[in-house]
Amino acid sequence: MTRSPAxxxxxxxxxxxxxxxxxxxxxxxxxxxxxxxGRVVFPLAGAGYTVGLTGAPGAGKSTLTSAVVAAVRAAxxxxxxxxxxxxxxxxxGAILGDRVRMGQHSLDPGVFIRSMATRGHLxxxxxxxxxxxxxxxxxxxxxxxxxTVGVGQVEVExxxxxxxxxxxxxxxxxxxxxxxxxxxMEIADIFVINKADRPGADSTRRDLEAMLDLTGADAxxxxxxxxxxxxxxxxxxxxxxxxxxxxxxxxxxxxxxxxRRERRARDELALVVQQRIRARAEALMGRERRFELxxxxxxxxxxxxxxxxxxxxxxxx
Length: 317
What we know:
12% strand; alpha/beta; 2 domains; single chain
């Protein structure tokens, strides 16, 4: 017998990991199922704390995440990990390397690890990730760590939507350019220099500190700390988690956590509305009408703004 989302979240709160996985799958697929899950879990969530972890491919984020999870568990806390994987545009399949690298935690009942991919649904990761994090929150996980694969626009948006955002870099001269170009300086609450046992770690730290000085990063009372780590050995992982806890305390004591969450709620509402309007417009126009307008724009006979007006007129009608 198929269980409803309400029944599944109740089961998940009781420790049913299969029910929890199915709820996240519904969120990934989008559509009416995701909306139903969202309505059920929304009033149950709010106690959990989300941490975003991002950085360039090859920075060792998954290895570091595994070490951080071990530190969290050593402190007696439960944690869930959403590993944001790239997905194939043809099959929708995700690269599950994150779960392979974090295999040491697979039998730990206090850890839940899930890889996510866009799978082509409307809104993509930007909409699905906070919804999945809310499911994990509602299921009773006090900490949810969101690890992204890269530093493209979507990944930065996803990581930046967390309560605390950790940016991972490696020793090397490219880090100054890398951090500035990707917009990571704006979203970073904590910097981690992973693979800090390699040459160049000290100069990378100096670069980051100099950039923080130039941007006035401590104007709000919090200066992002720069934490050296070696993910393969676990060195520095506990210090990363101490920095996360310190940042949480700062946000809570200053009222900034409430402000961040209010801003995220407004942004998420706007994104949901955009998604629904787009779906409604496509349904009302029909495929032929949409293709007709697209051809007019592509062939230069109609500008995009006028085409958009026609689409919105159809909605109003």
